[in-house]
Amino acid sequence: MTAAPQITLLVPCYNAARFLPRLMESVRGLTRPFDAILCYDDGSRDDTVAVARSLGLEIITGQPNAGVAHARNQLAAAARTEWIHFHDADDLICSSFLERLAPACDAQHDVVSCDADWVDEIARNLMVPWRYDPAALASTPLPHLLRNSMGLNNSIIRRSAWTAVGGCDESLQMWEDADVHIRLARNGARFHHVSEVLTISLRHADSFSHDHRRSWGCRVDALERYALAPGAGDIAPALVHESEHAASALALLGDRPTAERALALCRRLGARPPTTRNPLLKLLKPFVPAYSLLRLQATRRRRSA
């Protein structure tokens, strides 16, 4: 009989004192428990360390605050099991998470993932349903993950595969978790996906991710790097799609310089943005700057939505 995989829960913490008890309540409700739990305090200014210890958690302390990518890398380096799962302190985990995912943590796979819901913390209404195609992740994960970002809350990762790609890119303040999945796919990691919502991300007003301008800027940084990597021509359609998506979002946010960078990336990849079926916009494309057309298109779409 094959031994059950050993899996460590890794929790990066920054000012997480009010969230840790809630997370641990959901963790203790798991039908299959983690084999170990490890937290990293990234220079918190509240009682995170004291709260973690009161909950019986092992916690590493770091100073000064260096960002969540650094915290995750420190956690992965300290983990003592071959399989690791990162979970944000302010989110929830469903009771059957490990029961459903752990069986696929075997010699045939390097990343085992699930679907996720982003839910408003106060109203508890669904904001974003993150869904993935198991067949695409098994056969062609790289283009699928470029178009469908995956957070680390969603996955269990073989620690040796994590180490092979260098873990999180600490230069990215956001999108670092989506980026590491993309680099895992590019490095040949083998994915297995379970099409069930097994993790819940709670969105709240003071969340770091609400800085949309910075978030999309980090996304453009990552896309520019992917376009320079070997084999980028094979994923050019996905890179163009995501670059134009980023440019559209940045145009609505009024960040013209970063939007222009995304549009320039589209052109370097052989596209002529913006992509449109609107006859009027098609007519205007030779005469009106791409940024102006994209902003008009994005504004029209937002109003119609």
Automatic annotation (TrEMBL):
Residues 9-131 form the Glycosyltransferase 2-like domain. InterPro entries: Glyco_trans_2-like, Glycosyltransf_2, Nucleotide-diphossugar_trans. Pfam families: Glycos_transf_2 (PF00535). It comes from the Bacteria. PANTHER family: GLYCOSYLTRANSFERASE, GLYCOSYLTRANSFERASE 2-LIKE DOMAIN-CONTAINING PROTEIN. This is Glycosyltransferase family 2 protein. It comes from Horticoccus luteus.
